[in-house]
Every structure is written in structure tokens, then in C-alpha cells.
Amino acid sequence: MKQFNAALLQLKALVSRPLSSLFDAKSFKYALITTLCSTPALSWGNTQALVEQLDKGLEITHSANLSGEASQQKIDKIQKKTNQFLDDYRSTHENLNHLSTNNKHLQQVLDQQTRQTLSLNEQLETVAVTEKAIIPLILSMIETLEAAIKSGIPFLLDERHTRIASLKALMIKPDAGIPEKYRRVLEAYEIEREFGYTLETYQTEIQLDHSMKLVTILRVGRIGLYYQTQNGNTLGFWNTTSQQWQSLSSDYRKTIQQGILMASEQATPSLLRLPVSISGDKQ
Fold it and tell me: In the Cβ-directed half-sphere of 183, how many Cα atoms lie within 13 Å?
């Protein structure tokens, strides 16, 4: 009986070990039968019954080992998927951080653009208000210039009236900007201003004694306009009060001729003593 117990303990120790790593099923069974038969306390019948029980135990153990291997393979697959999910999570988290930083930057840019848009809208409103004030000013300047031409001495009237008409046409052009309109008006004023500092002579026809006659005109700045007929016998000046030509005595013939030569740059500049119409008087 002691030998049987010892053999049983030995078998239990063998069964508790991973059999697949030591023996295959047939080799282990052969070793087991040999051990049992060598035990004197056991008969062949008892040995045969014990072997059958051990066969069942080996089958159960083998099935458990196969089940354990399958479970380990499942665990390995789960671990592999878990690691993959973890890597994907880390990558996604990193991309999320990048997107968050980029979105924050874009929001700052958007805020700046919004502020610039508000500033531009305010400037446009200011420009609109300024434009409303400038347009009447420019129109008033054109009217003033036109009135000055009409009331002043009548020289180069075709040229000057054409300039006024051009300014009026410019003011109603939809594609002309405020700066261009203002610049053109200032140019017209500058041209009129320069007339006040120059001598000029040219030939034109004027109405004398109810007929048109070809004369030589002498303009002295913007204060005096004089004429002389082609034969030099008839002289006169423009009376700004009566708005008509008025004759002069032959005493001014040489002075007018001298002025014509000076305007033509054919004589040295000198003082001219000529009558000027101021409030209807001759001086």
C-alpha cells in the first residue's frame, strides 16, 4: 500500500507538469504502465483500471493544455490590438493638439481681420462724409471760376469756356474719382492765376462799330486788355464796367505797340503807362 501511494504521488507530480514539453501521450502512457507493473502491491487488474483512469486524466489535461494555448493566442491577439489602439490613440491625440494650436492661431488671425474690417468700414464712412462735403465745394469752385471769366476781361474766351465745360462734364462722369475731379479744378485755377502775371498778344476778331474787325490784342495780366487795328490807326481797351470795347486816343499808340513787342519777346521789358478800367473809370 505504501508503494502504491508513492507511485500515485509520483504520477500526480507528472500530471501537474506541462506534459507536452516532456513526453507525447503514448510515451507517457508506456512509462506509466511500466511503473505501475513494477509495483508489487498492485495486481494486473488494478493496474489496468488505474491506467484507464489515468488515460481519462491525460485526455482532460491535454484538452486543458490545448484550451490554454488557444486562450493565450487570443490574449496575444487582444494585446496586439490593444497596443495598436494605444498607438492610434497617441497619434490621434497628437494630431488633435496640432489642430487645436492651428485653430487658436487661425482664430487670432480672424480676430485681427475682423478688427481691420471694422476699421476700414469706419474709414469708408468717414470718406463718404468727406465726399459729401467735397463735391459741393468743387461745384462751387467751378461756378466761381466761371463767374470770374464772365465778369473779367474777355481774353481767350473759347479756350477758357471749353475748360469750364470740360470740368462740368468731368463732375458727372461715374468713373471719375474725387481726387481726379479736385485735381483738374485746381489745375484750372492755376492756369487762371498765371494769367495775372504774364503779358500776351494774339490776333482775333472783335466787334467794332457794329462790324467784326481783325485786331491785335495785348493782354496785361488780368487787369488790362487792349487792341490795335492792323493799320494801327484805331486803338482801344475793354471797359469792365460797361462790358464793351472803348476807344483810346492815339497818345497810347506807341505804348500799346511797345507792349505788343514785349509780349512777343521782341523788346526789353519796361514800364507801360496804360489806362485801366476800375469801377467804370479810366486811370
Answer: 5
The per-residue pLDDT string of the chain (283 residues; one tens digit each, 9 = 90 and over) reads: 555 455 555 555 554 555 444 445 555 555 555 555 555 554 555 656 666 776 676 677 767 767 777 778 888 888 888 888 888 888 888 888 888 888 888 888 878 888 887 777 777 667 666 777 888 999 999 999 999 998 889 999 999 999 999 999 999 998 988 889 999 999 999 999 999 899 999 999 998 888 899 999 999 998 899 999 988 889 999 998 888 899 999 999 999 999 999 999 899 988 888 888 765 444 4
Residue spans of the domains in the chain: they are 133-195, 199-282
- Return contacts of 211-214, CB within 8 angstroms, 24+ apart: none
**How far is the C-alpha of 136 from the C-alpha of 140, rounded, in Å?**
6
Using CA atoms, how far apart are residues 261 and 254, in angstroms rounded to an integer?
Answer: 10
The C-alpha R_g of the chain, in whole angstroms, comes to 62
Q: What is the pTM of this model?
A: 0.53
**Amino acid, single-letter form, for residue 127:** V
